[in-house]
Design brief:
4-stranded parallel beta sheet; alpha/beta; about 40% helix
Length: about 350
């Protein structure tokens, strides 16, 4: 006799869901699940899914970026065993690079001192050497990307070929890995039944790569940018001008320039998303659906809701749950910090941290 069993959230076994093995850390990157976001789906009448990139071994979508950059560098001989990886990053790409290179390379990271303590600590735990620099605009020579490039140049001047500057913003191996993996996975997971994709842009790799992959398979898929306040990219898409207003507590997304990865991205729509819209979505995801995600995921979900409303009920939208909220606990889940920024504090958070 067969006994029917039901566990919350447990799907029927299938070939696609079968457990498998991976040869190493690199092979464990990607193939992340799509999670139906119940609240946003019910609100809009659409099927809204989040790509669970926090499930990557380094905890973020930037593991894919790091893998793409490093694979290309090894193929072209830009880095050799015993060499040094140098990168400027808001944190997550550096974590991915340091983990992937742990057995073969030294890693040096330049990052803004304004980034969360949790991310800074996570980088140091990997063994990476972290240089904290002031948060300044890209035009300033003190910007973390420029500092990283100078560090690599100085090392190479001392010993040619000893350091490799990963250059995630303008190295298009970034968007290429997202086109080949992230975008292709989304298409396959939904058997091509997708109407729109939306996410924020920092380097531009995810948005451009996924957009290219989906448009190549079906040009009707709508690609949208969710841009945090203070970034100039939404203005660029909508008006052709780089202009920014306001500010955001989100980290690792937004830009004041057009990177090589972002350039030519097939974007149909763009919105500037204020923190007052995105941060409550982060809190709702953990309180109502058990998904603990970072601030960029709130911006992404806000964009997905806007895109769903633009397309109308019955459509399928995908966005990205880029990393975990535990990397931003002192900001996103700190009532005093949120109040200081004029952001709402949910009752449950007040009770947890009175």
């Amino acid at each position: 006799m067969t006994v029917a069993r039901r566990t919350i959230g447990a799907p029927e076994a299938s070939r696609r869901d079968a457990l498998d093995t991976r040869e190493d850390l690199a092979a464990a990157i990607g193939r992340t699940p799509l999670i139906r976001l119940r609240g946003a789906s019910a609100l809009t009448g659409c099927a809204i899914y989040g790509k669970a990139e926090f499930a990557n071994p380094g905890g973020s979508i930037k593991d894919r970026t790091a893998l793409g950059l490093l694979l290309q560098a090894e193929r072209t001989g830009a880095i050799r065993p015993g060499g040094t990886i140098v990168e400027g990053t808001a944190g997550n790409t550096g974590i991915g690079l340091a983990l992937l290179g742990a057995s073969r390379y030294r890693t040096i990271i330049a990052m803004p001192a304004t980034q969360s303590r949790e991310k800074i600590d996570a980088l140091r735990v990997t063994g990476a050497e972290v240089h904290l620099v002031p948060a300044v605009a890209y035009a300033d020579p003190g910007h973390y990307a420029h500092v990283a490039r100078r560090l690599a140049d100085a090392m190479n001047a001392h010993e040619a070929g000893s350091a490799w500057f990963a250059n995630q913003f303008d190295n298009t191996a970034n968007r290429d890995i997202h086109e080949v993996t992230t975008g292709a996975e989304i298409w396959d997971q939904l058997d091509g039944r997708i109407d729109g994709f939306v996410c924020a842009s920092g380097t531009g790799g995810t948005l451009a790569g996924v957009g290219r992959a989906l448009k190549a398979r079906d040009p009707r898929v709508r690609i949208a940018l969710a841009d945090p306040a203070g970034s100039a990219l939404a203005s660029y898409v909508n008006t052709g001008r780089l202009a920014a207003e306001g500010s955001s507590i989100s980290e690792g997304i937004g830009s004041s320039r057009i990177t090589a990865n972002f350039d030519g991205a097939p974007i149909d729509l763009a919105w500037s998303i204020p923190d007052t819209e995105s941060v409550p979505l982060v809190h709702a995801l953990i309180a109502e659906e058990g998904l603990n995600v970072g601030g960029s995921s709130g911006v992404n979900l806000a964009g997905a809701i806007r895109l769903a409303r633009r397309l109308g009920p019955g459509h399928t939208i995908v966005t990205v749950l880029a990393d975990a909220g535990t990397r931003y606990q002192a900001k996103l889940f700190n009532p005093a910090f949120l109040r200081d920024k004029g952001l709402p504090v949910p009752d449950w958070l007040d009770r947890a941290f009175p």
